[in-house]
Amino acid sequence: MATGSTEGTVRRGRPGYDQETVLRRAVDLFNRQGYDATSIGDLARELGLTKSAIYHHVPSKEHLLALALDEALDGLDAVIAEAVQDRPGVSAYDRLRTAVRQSVEVLVAHLPAVTLLLRVHGNSDVEQQALARRRAIDERLSRLVQDAVAEGAVRDDIDPDVISRLLFGMVNSLVEWYRPGGPVDATVLADAVAALAFDGLAVRER
């Protein structure tokens, strides 16, 4: 994706900061204040730098947004890309359940970036590209749900598109309350989400 490309724009950081540190602080600030309401000047004050010094680290605020959104999307994209591949002896149901678990793990590992992704509204080309990638992920997930329904492993009285939206709606809602370092670790959380979702989706004997 062009949104995350740094070719020709990689800057060498000044002492005390590298681009990764600037990115982390920027994402935190975007999440606190909102991306549109945050200026390069705000980020400079957050880092204790002058506004002009920021440009020794990154070319623009939009570049930081692109890096953050690609960080979140690349993880989710990899999970779904693996899940939709047919593999001998692995059912669509098992691949779907694994995809949900791994999506939780991606969210936990990249919580600030995923939080930012879920808050963009398409107000720029970078945001539009990110939303297009999200839609593509949703479409592949919906097809995987359809495959699990066709196997007879997932109940067929709920529309597959609705199922996929509900599944990832549950995963995405974790950004509102989950905090790393709390009493529930990522593995336990992923298992809990998968169990709650799929026990409710399993076909029952009539």
Topology:
Layout: H1 19-33, H2 40-47, H3 51-54, H4 61-83, H5 92-109, H6 111-117, H7 125-151, H8 160-172, H9 186-201
Helix pairs in contact: 1-2, 1-6, 4-5, 4-6, 4-7, 5-6, 5-7, 5-8, 5-9, 7-8
What does it look like?
With 206 residues, this protein is mainly alpha-helical. It has two domains: 2-61, Arc Repressor Mutant, subunit A (Orthogonal Bundle), CATH 1.10.10; 66-201, Orthogonal Bundle (Tetracycline Repressor, domain 2). The chain contains nine helices and no strands. The termini are far apart. Residues 1-15 have low confidence and may be disordered.
Number of strands: 0
Q: Which superfamily, in CATH terms, is the homologous superfamily of the largest domain?
A: Tetracycline Repressor, domain 2
The backbone outline, from C-alpha atoms, is: elongated
The CATH class of the largest domain is identified as Mainly Alpha
How many helix segments?
A: 9
Distance between the termini: 48 Å
CATH topology name of the largest domain, in short, is Tetracycline Repressor, domain 2
H/E order of the elements? Answer: HHHHHHHHH
| β-strand amount | under 5%
CATH architecture of the largest domain: Orthogonal Bundle
The structural class is mainly alpha
- Helicity, in percent? 55-70%
The number of domains: 2
Low-pLDDT stretches? 1-15
Q: Largest sheet, described in full?
A: none
Averaged pLDDT: 88
The whole-angstrom Rg is: 19 Å
GO molecular function, one term: transcription cis-regulatory region binding
DNA-binding region: 39-58
Organism: Mumia zhuanghuii
Protein name: TetR/AcrR family transcriptional regulator
